[in-house]
Amino acid sequence: MSSELRRKTPEELLREIQAEEPAPKLGYLKIFLGYASGVGKSYRMLDEARRRKERGQDVVIGALQDKAAPEVESLARRLEVVAFLRIDGGTAVDVNAILRRHPTVCFIDGLAYNNPPGSRHPTRWEDVQELLNARIKVVTSINIQYISELREQVEQLTGKQVQATVPASFVKTADEIEIVDAPPQESIAHTQEEEMDIDKRRRQLSKLRELALVLAADVVDFQLQQYLEQHGIRQPLGTHERLLVCITPRTNVREMLDTARGIAARFHADLIAAYVNQPEISGSDKAALEERLDLARAVGARIEILGGTDPASAIMEFAKSHGITQLFIGHSQRSGIGPRLWGNPVDRLIQEARGMDIRIFPQ
Amino acid sequence: MSEQPRGKLKIFMGYAAGVGKTYKMLEEAQDLKARGVDVVVGYFESHGRQDTIAKAEGLELVPRKKIIYRDATFEEMDTEAILARHPQVAAIDEFPHTNIPGSDRLKRWEDVLVLLSDGIEVLTTMNIQHLESLNDQVWHITGVRVRETIPDWVVQRADEVVMIDLTPRALLHRLERGVVYSREKAARAMENFFRESTLVALRELALRQAAHEVEHRAVWGDAPPETDGSGANGKRIHKILVHVTADPRTAMLIRRAKRLSDFLDADCFAVAVQASGDLNTPPESEREALNRHLNFARNIHIETLVLEGEDAATTLVDFARRNEITQIFLVRPPDRRRFALLSRNLVQKIVALAKDMQIVIVSERDRPVAQ
Q1: Whole-number pLDDT of residue B366
Q2: What is the reported pTM?
Q3: Would you tell me which CATH number, out of the four given (2.60.40.420, 3.20.20.190, 3.40.50.11060, 3.40.50.620), belongs to the domain A242-361?
């Protein structure tokens, strides 16, 4: 089996070095991710607490939800609970008490809470961070609605303001993430707004469910990339579609970007648009290029400006080192048939694109 | 036939043995029973797992059917007995299972379709690696060519697909403790299929597929796709043409094209070109391969055609233009093989002729190697 021998990029080398250095071993973070209240995160979480306790681990509960289902309450009764701190009528995780108690594992049901003014930290996820820094293992739960980066999308979807959020960057540091999935049941659909049209509520829940699954997949992808890099495997496993649209000042980009946006949306794919820098570019070409790059940005593409004297090589090098699965290029401007053209960029890309698909567009 | 409304299908989807699919399915069966629903277990495989066996307690089990094959007795699900019993809901494990020769139907999923069309609701389980369109990706990740596959259109028929998740670490702990398999079997499994990176990759595939299944049902369940599959004018629907040859990578090409067309809600056609317009002229080995590929395409619900033409490129592009094809899928010319030049010329010629269409050149993926 052949594999590309390729020099590592500086970023890869850096990450490898960092991976080899013994990182300060902090507490272990596990997150149960759900898309609505009522899917069963609390139960799954406390069931894990019960199992760990039965296996002899030192387990405490640092936070419980106000309104717990009866089966959750009966689980909690069999476990040690560190009571909330009361501040000005509000409640917060008692970080000091947990630090003093120093259990092996602390369970925090509900990660997205703002603490009352005067608390140790403004938010609960920062409390958790402190527990992790003290090398306490934390198992916690969160709903997709409360991810900061999704706030706008969620508010648009539900029409409701989101009060407390947790940054996705914190969620991505989790050593383990587990999704609690279930189709929207009547019970979930009914809990919040009785007035709301049931179909609308179902569509909302479907969208939230999709967002949760994709976030979990992204976290898992991040873990996979780290693992592969640490083990010197640079061939991507193709679990995540990554699209690279090649843009020049002459490219007819509309159809390319339309198709790219469609595929990216359906596959929840990464979308990148790349341009290979040409030193002697005319003013009008520069304007044309900027216009195209703006169109690419407008469909949500990340822009990469590549260097290199030979555009085809620059594109291929980038594609191979970034796990691109689909390469989008324009038909060559030149016309003609036959092997004599094998030297043109399109043909060369086809020849070298082992391991990815190439999509050639009308120009 | 019957006026029976079709039964609903719910799939519990996982990414490996031991994540808890069967347990979840039985738990749901128990819940339904507690609510007074008439539910039976049509087939279930405990693999000797205690908690799974306990979950099945109290549920009515339809006895398996004994089938004698080559002097040995095998047990399969008794579809006819379930039909006769006609419960509201049947819980049926291992959706991708292949029945022993001599059974009425080849595959368990075919048995399930029979139950559904008789109005019985079915709960079932499967792992992501058995989905036909992911077969190449699964091989790429695991090095295992999965033979028991389920066509995507069968999974698309499901009313609900639920992701049964467990982190790979938790799964590996379960294996170590002997919950999933006996200890020796577990040691072997851990070396091969259950390597952590493999599990992580399969899990990612499953999560992405589950997200797609949710989106597919939400968006396309009650309205046609709004943006995607349409071109610049907002109306054009993609139509995909796959060129079928005797090249062994054609199955991969067909799977990839089908997956794309499913995701984009496009039409898909698989077309071979022969001078005679039929499959009687090519030499035996080529004819056999072409037949196999065309059959495969039909089995996963792609319309197939054999076109008459001396020149494959011109015939293909003419056909594409007449039928308003928007994308032509071709297999990438091989690197160093006997027919590399021929295949390369074909690709070049099609690329040159079909400048008004999208041409997708699909490449095989290499298995990753640690360096």
Answers
A1: 79
A2: 0.87
A3: 3.40.50.620
